[in-house]
């Protein structure tokens, strides 16, 4: 009977535990900050005195004395610029993780402890990183080409994470869209850029087009398409508003054929030029007659 009473007396302590909750901001953009919140309630007898914040990748990030508010929180020396206390109030500690990188993705745990009884409780939150695509840049652009050799360009851009995008090419002639998809040959690969971390988000695409005289004045534009930002490529490349970059106009030149018979060259040129001059004179004459 005495034992039973003891149990009943002990029960409320067991069912009114220290309750802890954690949450993290939803949209966490690479390079920006994330906010993490730990909140708790506890019976007076269960008042915790320590709070630990841990991550799945880096053990202890933060340790706070939470007996009396405002709470005293400390971070590891190396982490001081990365994790900083935002707010500390009764039953609340919030802090920010700055300059998010992909390696900050993971599970964050708020763990409460009452040292005297060793009672503890914890709550986990998942932090996901999102990286927006970046404007593409062009390199190795070859737009002044001899007929039958390759017009080429390389485009490099961040394509986003975790929803990755891709690079697509469009072509224009004298500013108007032309469909050269059957002639454009492009290859893409993911590359690691300085500053990238555990989620490489940079793609490089190289395009080639065998130059023909009908390609005179074309331009090639590279667009990033990504479901989060720009799901399809716009009709025209406007670098200030679209994620795109465009080459300058292509110049295709013909190499003069070596003269088949010595001395016949000038004659060929004359035979070609004379009708033109003749035609022009005719037009001038005709115009004079009309007006
Ligand atoms: C821990 O906290 C959760 C959520 O606040 C609560 O449901 C649970 O009962 C607590 N557990 C203990 C052992 O205190
Ligand atoms: C905060 O905690 C640290 C380490 O636990 C301690 O050295 C420091 O004196 C404390 N500061 C205050 C204001 O209590
Ligand atoms: C032109 O590009 C195509 C496709 O990339 C390639 O197969 C070919 O070798 C290139 N030609 C020259 C002359 O570079
Ligand atoms: C942010 O982190 C990246 C590496 O992920 C680093 O290259 C960059 O310099 C950092 N920026 C700031 C403002 O600390
Ligand atoms: C190419 O563009 C130039 C001006 O940029 C223009 O004078 C020329 O007529 C164009 N040639 C063709 C074939 O479109």
UniProtKB/TrEMBL annotation:
InterPro entries reported in the protein's UniProt record: Ig-like_dom_sf, Ig-like_fold, Ig_V-set
Cited SUPFAM superfamilies: Immunoglobulin (SSF48726)
Superkingdom of origin organism: Eukaryota
Domain Immunoglobulin V-set: start-end pairs: 26-123
Span of the signal peptide: 1-17
Record keywords, A-Z: Signal
Protein name stated in the entry: Cell adhesion molecule 2-like
Species this protein is from: Biomphalaria glabrata (Bloodfluke planorb)
Gene: LOC106058167
